[in-house]
User: Which sequence fits this backbone?
């Protein structure tokens, strides 16, 4: 029987694991992202490849050493580099002497059919549909709670309690086996988190929007858990990029993309692959909603985000919203990041208070 | 006479003959920026963000040189050459990036046709009509201009290929042959690559580039890869490399890969070629990464050393083959990776 593995990306593992278990396959989940994963990935990846390639390669190596023999990876049709990860990773893994089957899920469903047949032996459409629905419910639940957590961290009653609930929830969600229980669990934790929120403080609560490349936004290990750090500084964080949102767009089931394009049009008139146009469009949308600041996250040498980075100062100038761009690579240190975040939050606070001394 | 500016960077190195013919036909005067020099590069670096790759930074410099000299500026938005033939995202956002770098009043009117098909590297309909209307209000003239330009372009592509075939016939001397792999806008810009090709000539080495092969050969060779690369330029490069590695491995002695620092597609394609080359025995590989800090002296030394190494290797090969015949066992390819 196949032992399937897959890359980490935020809470993706919960959904994918549920799907394969439901399909009756053995799943070898790669260990949580750690420094060791990153080091392994960096060691064997091309030098100038972007960070997600490196860390997912690290995931695969760790999982294969744990005994996996089938790798499932996402594909794409460009122009973002993500669509070509599969080729490089497969060749690098072969070069290292690992023997495994490497399956790529392409956005064109037609191309996947023979892969599905190979993985499952036959073509159980009904089963796939049921398992997919179940996994989807889990992903949705995780995203809903995540959304709440981003807001709740800024005004929690006891420090750290929200994160504690969030971790509990994810751990329990991973083990749940029926749809009904997912709903109950989600309800339970929604209530718990809401109860742990104090009424908003008297002073200023800043609102910051997070935009940027999806892997960096979703994966807390790589972005040094920036959302938590902001929450501890008393900032209410919002973002538009969620795993479920991404899948919706992938399946053309959402009008989010049109909205983004429309808002970005004065600055960027065409999509540039990846989440480049989303970065611009969402910045404009947040500016319209009177957010205090924007933080753009991207891996070093990410092409779409470089285009966005070039254009963001113009957006900032015209709409008056402050933007902080953070590029991450394997050398990014935590201390430097904290200092920059604190300075940025400080600046926003003063700006909001109308501290005129700042502008003299 | 109205004037139109074309920066001498990026796509200039692919489609300039067509553009020139097209705009001249419509009665516009084409103003080109000079070949890249120190001033242009420094201006470009100042105007752009750090993370951009060198050719794009230089593009900004060229645009700066052209300011206030013309009525229009031509900056095409390169989206794709049809399905599955895409480009680096920076080409897609180029006009928008240029707009943000300069004050609004400084820039002349930007003509930026959206390129989505293989033969649409000209501002065919909308834009041409817009410029054309100012001059001769004749739709037929515009279409004529388009087809003359297209012909001209195809002819230049063919000329480049034919030239090499002639060279190949006379190529029975003992000179080394090197494949120079890199985007055209890098290896044709002598300032950016620090006279790489001239230096090769000086060292008495023959070279081939991707442009000297016809597209069909490249497409065919590129399909050796399981999943086709969806970046058009990079697929051509990959095809060139595979063509020489698998179809004609005896024709070349070494490969020089020229990349810009931070080039996205190259970073992955380069790795694939590296892996392939390290498995062959007779082909050496040199990787050159260009950025604004690259020094001329360092590059020259590396090139000379590389050529020396190949020369010695070919000499050794003959000797070993004749005398002891253990060449096949010895792992000379370990020199391969730089």
Assistant:
């Amino acid at each position: 029987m196949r032992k399937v593995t897959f890359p980490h990306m935020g809470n993706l593992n919960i959904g994918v694991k549920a799907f394969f278990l439901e399909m009756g396959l053995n799943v070898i989940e790669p260990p949580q992202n750690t420094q060791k994963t990153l080091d392994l990935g960096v060691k064997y990846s091309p030098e100038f490849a972007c960070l997600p390639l490196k860390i997912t390669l690290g995931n695969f190596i760790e999982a294969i050493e744990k005994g996996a023999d089938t790798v499932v990876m996402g594909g794409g049709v460009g122009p973002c580099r993500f669509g070509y990860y599969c080729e490089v990773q497969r060749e690098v893994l072969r070069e290292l002497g690992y023997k495994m089957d490497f399956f790529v899920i392409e956005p064109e469903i037609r191309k996947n059919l023979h892969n599905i047949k190979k993985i499952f032996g036959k073509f159980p459409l009904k089963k796939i549909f049921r398992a997919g629905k179940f996994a989807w419910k889990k992903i949705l639940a995780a995203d809903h709670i995540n959304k709440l957590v981003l807001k709740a961290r800024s005004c929690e009653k006891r420090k750290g309690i929200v994160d504690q609930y969030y971790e509990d929830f994810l751990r329990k969600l991973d083990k749940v086996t029926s749809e009904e229980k997912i709903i109950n669990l989600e309800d339970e934790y929604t209530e718990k988190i809401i109860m742990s929120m104090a009424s908003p403080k008297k002073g200023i609560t800043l609102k910051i929007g997070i935009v940027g490349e999806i892997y960096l936004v979703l994966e807390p290990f790589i972005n040094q858990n920036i959302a938590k750090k902001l929450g501890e500084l008393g900032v209410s964080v919002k973002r538009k990029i969620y795993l479920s949102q991404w899948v919706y767009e992938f399946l053309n089931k959402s009008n989010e993309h049109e909205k983004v394009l429309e808002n970005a049009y004065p600055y960027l008139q065409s999509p540039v692959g990846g989440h480049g146009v989303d970065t611009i469009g969402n910045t404009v949308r947040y500016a319209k909603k009177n957010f205090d600041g924007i933080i753009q996250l991207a891996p070093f040498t990410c092409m779409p985000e470089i285009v966005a980075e070039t254009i963001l100062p113009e957006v900032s100038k015209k709409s008056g919203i402050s933007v902080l761009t953070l590029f991450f690579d394997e050398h990014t240190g935590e201390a430097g990041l904290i200092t920059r975040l604190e300075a940025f939050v400080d600046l926003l606070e003063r700006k909001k208070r109308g501290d005129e001394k700042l502008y003299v | 006479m109205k004037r139109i500016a074309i920066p001498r960077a990026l796509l200039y190195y692919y489609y300039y003959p067509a553009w020139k013919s097209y705009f001249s036909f419509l009665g516009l005067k084409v103003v080109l920026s000079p070949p890249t020099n120190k001033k242009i590069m420094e201006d470009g670096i100042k105007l752009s963000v750090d993370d951009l790759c060198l050719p794009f930074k230089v593009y900004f410099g060229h645009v700066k040189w052209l300011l206030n000299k013309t009525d229009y500026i031509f900056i095409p938005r390169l989206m794709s050459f049809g399905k599955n033939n895409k480009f680096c995202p920076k080409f897609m956002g180029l006009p928008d990036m240029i707009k943000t770098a300069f004050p609004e009043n400084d820039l002349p009117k930007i003509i930026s046709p959206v390129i989505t098909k293989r033969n649409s590297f000209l501002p065919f309909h909308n834009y041409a009509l817009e410029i054309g209307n100012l001059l001769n209000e004749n739709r037929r003239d515009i279409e004529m201009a388009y087809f003359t330009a297209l012909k001209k372009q195809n002819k230049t592509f063919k000329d480049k290929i034919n030239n090499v075939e002639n060279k190949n016939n006379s190529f029975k001397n003992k000179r080394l042959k090197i494949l120079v792999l890199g985007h055209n806008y890098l290896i044709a810009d002598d300032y950016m690559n620090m006279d790489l090709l001239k230096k090769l000539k000086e060292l008495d080495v023959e070279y081939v580039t991707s442009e000297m092969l016809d597209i069909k050969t490249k497409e065919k060779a590129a399909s050796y890869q399981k999943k086709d690369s969806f970046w058009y330029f990079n697929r051509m490069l990959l095809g060139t490399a595979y063509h020489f590695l698998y179809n004609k491995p005896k024709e070349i002695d070494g490969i020089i890969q020229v990349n810009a620092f931070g080039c996205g597609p190259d970073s992955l394609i380069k790795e694939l070629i590296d892996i392939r080359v390290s498995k062959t025995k007779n082909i050496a590989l040199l990787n050159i990464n260009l950025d604004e800090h690259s020094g001329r002296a360092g590059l020259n030394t590396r090139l000379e050393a590389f050529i020396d190494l190949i020369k010695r290797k070919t000499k050794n090969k003959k000797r070993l083959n004749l005398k002891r015949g253990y060449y096949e066992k010895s792992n000379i390819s370990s020199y391969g990776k730089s």
In short: Confidence is low (pLDDT under 50) at residues 323-338 of chain B. The first helix of chain B runs from residue 12 to 25. DSSP finds 13 helices and ten strands in chain B.
